[in-house]
Amino acid sequence: MYIIVHPEKSSYKLFFYDSKRVVEIGAVGLSKSSRGYRPKDFSIRSVGKRQLRHTPTKELIAKLRSSRVLMSSEDEPFASFLSDLQIGYGIVNLCRMCLYEDRISPVRKKNAVAYGKEKICMDCAKRELRRELGYVGHGFGSLSFTHLERLLELYRDLNRVLGMVEPERLDLKQTLFDTIQAQPVTQTTALKDLPLPPEFIKASRVERLMPVQQLCVEGGLLEGTDQLVVAATASGKTFIGEMAGANNYFMDKGCMLFLVPLVALANQKYSRFTERYGSIMNVGLRTGVSRLNLPETRVKANRNINSAIVVGTYEGIDHHIRQGNPLPKIGTVVIDEVQMLEDSDRGHRLDGLIMRLKVLVPDAQFLYLSATIGVPGLLAEKLNAKLIPYSERPVPLERHLIFTSRKQKVALIKRMVNTEFHHTSSKGYKGQTIVFTNARSRCHVIAEAIGSKAAPYHAGLTARERRSVEKRFEKGELAAVVTTAALAAGVDFPASQVIFDALAMGIKWLSVQEFCQMMGRAGRPDFHDVGRVVIIAEPGGSYCRTDSGTEEEIAIKLLQGEMEEVAPVYDEEQSSEEYVANAIVCKGDEKQLEMMCSTMVGEMMPVFPTLREFRLVKRMGGRVGLSPMAMVMAKHFIGVRRLQTIRKLVRKMDDPVEMVAEIDCMDDEEQG
After folding, report:
1. What is the C-alpha to C-alpha distance for residues 382 and 567, in angstroms, rounded to an integer?
2. Are 458 and 443 in contact (CB under 8 A)?
3. Residue 577: helix, strand or coil by DSSP?
């Protein structure tokens, strides 16, 4: 028999325990006399009964002498009482909440859960979690409860889990999911000690290489080696391209193509390169924006494709190629954000563009840059490039997870944005935030709630409006930009904090690769001491009935997920578009065309039979001839099915606007 003594305010609770269960429960007080502490008012009851029966204290003493005595905590009066009776005792850690309900639950390392300043058992922690969530009232479903219980088992800290669901008691120490540490400072080569053109070294304003740049130089960057560079945002990837491009240009190997996915990013790179290198190399811009004769979209820029540095969008350069126009002598091709190969809408075009450039400028050095690539070694093999991986970050990155209702998200975002903006780093920069959400209208809602120090930023704004936001953010005038996930690979905002208001791109959940790309925008070595990522997930939240999972489950999957191999498979529409574009570049040479289509990163469908069926191509003695309509396909970035749709609409409609509207409706039906 065990007797467990638990001190209460003015008495002691006693549990008579037979090693399997509590059989009786007693209560006793102590009074101090000249001979020490003596028991008084001893009573006892059976488990499950309320009625106490008063019992002589000598029975308590007899039970104490015949049992093993344990105390839930040190208590000087009771310890003195036992000492006077020459009764030994031990200390056992018990769950206080179980004791209130007449249960004995020892708290050991394997089942202890932190709650306030004490430890309780896992069962009580789960009951307390459900009780607290009932008070919070976010409408948690059974799936959410199960998920939070898993987190409780993972963290063993009830305070931390509750901190994720009670924004009014928000403590970022409790919401911390993990921290990605920064790399240790390593000695790197001074730029002046490299075999680079002196005028470039002076114009670059760079004194020493960053670690990933050092790895690239050691990997043959300045000897013309093709490289796939996978390193975190702000680790210095752009300058890798600048070094190779300038080196090849001044060695008379040709100009540099620096290709990016978005017009806004191209404009930013063009401005930077012009400011830095304009005095030693002319810089050109090829985005296609100049075709729109609107004041807000006219960008004053050198559009000469024969410039020493040509900054362009993928489609801007590809359009030039698909028209059958020649390229200048090119020594370096830089593909920035090469993870766009995985993009379901544009990946096939980037893949085809890379192949077409390899055929047109086979002697050029190809550099592929990305912060996020799954299984990069396999992609490097497909691109025939040397992999330069660098997994360390230039600054540490904290990742936080908070659960709350959608209606409470905006107020929470406002509080975190303002808190971050009032913090100044050791480099002298205020904390600034990028807020990612899934809809343009939501961008405006959040920005308006934050106030004048925040601005929406999305593709629905004019070019002039977006440039204004970019400049204000760069000057530190804005505390936050609120943007859509679709612009995650866009303009290089130097933010210290990234907040996810939603984990979807439109109505589709983000992939791990997309999430990592967006997350990586938090924390810059020249601006910040630490980066912070905050996911605000709605328990039970979803954006599409056809997509499985709820937002809080997707959050965990993204935080714990691993990126998959870049291995896209192109459908008939995508394959047919790339087939005819490749045919233009190889001038219909059937063997070369087959080689181009079979050695792209993605897998193409055999589309020649379909194209021949619609009289778009034909074989002519080892060559593939394109009809005028096939040339239209290539030049206007459309596939065979879209072409047939347009041809049918032309026969039925006279108004081009009506035709465009009809095509958009068809696209919506296919995607929905």
Report:
1. 10
2. yes
3. helix
Element (H, E) at 367: strand 365-370
Sequential DSSP letters for 134-159: HHHTS---HHHHHHHHHHHHHH-BHH
Helix (H, G, I), strand (E, B) or coil at 46: strand
The tokens describing 265, both together, are 């990013």
Integer Cα distance of 305 and 311 in angstroms: 9
The answer on pLDDT for 555 being more than 80 is yes
Q: How far is CA 459 from CA 263, 464, 484, 485, in A?
A: 10, 12, 9, 11
Continuous segment of H or E residues that includes residue 244 = helix 237-250
**All domains of the chain in start order, with CATH:** 2-92 (3.30.420), 126-179 (no CATH), 191-390 (3.40.50.300), 397-560 (3.40.50.300), 573-671 (1.10.3380.30)
User: Residue 16, by phi and psi: left (phi above 0), alpha (psi -120 to 50) or beta?
Assistant: beta
Q: Is 309 left (phi over 0), alpha (psi -120 to 50) or beta?
A: beta
Q: What is the mean pLDDT of residues 519-530?
A: 87
Pair of tokens at residue 590: 């059937």
Q: What is the mean pLDDT of the chain?
A: 87
- How far is it, in rounded angstroms, from Cα 367 to Cα 307? 19
Beta bridge partners of 402: 536
- In this prediction, residue 255 has a pLDDT band, given cuts at 50, 70 and 90, of very high
Cα distance between residue 204 and residue 242, in whole Å: 9
What H or E segment, with its residue span, contains residue 531? strand 531-537
Asked if 307 and 282 touch (Cβ cutoff 8 Å), the reply is yes
Is-contact 535 164, C-beta < 8 A? no
Question: Could you give the CA distance from residue 47 to residue 616 in angstroms, rounded to a whole number?
Answer: 88
Nearest to 156 by CA among 125, 132, 129: 125
Asked if 436 and 456 count as a contact pair (C-beta separation under 8 A), the reply is no
User: Interior CA angle at 230 toward 486 and 600, to 5°?
Assistant: 75
Strands 255-260, 176-180: parallel, antiparallel or unpaired by DSSP?
unpaired
Cβ atoms of residues 428 and 392 within 8 Å: no
pTM above 0.85, yes or no: no
Tell me what the mean pLDDT of segment 264-278 comes to. Answer: 91
**Token pair of 637, please?**
């970035």
What span, in angstroms and rounded, lies between the C-alpha atoms of 123 and 58? 37
SS3 call for 34: coil
Number of H helices, E strands in the chain: 25, 27
The neighbouring-strand residues paired with 3 are 16, 69
- Is there a contact between 332 and 357 (Cβ–Cβ < 8 Å)? no
Instruction: Give the separation between CA 128 and CA 158, rounded to whole angstroms.
Output: 8
Which pLDDT value is given to residue 138? Answer: 54
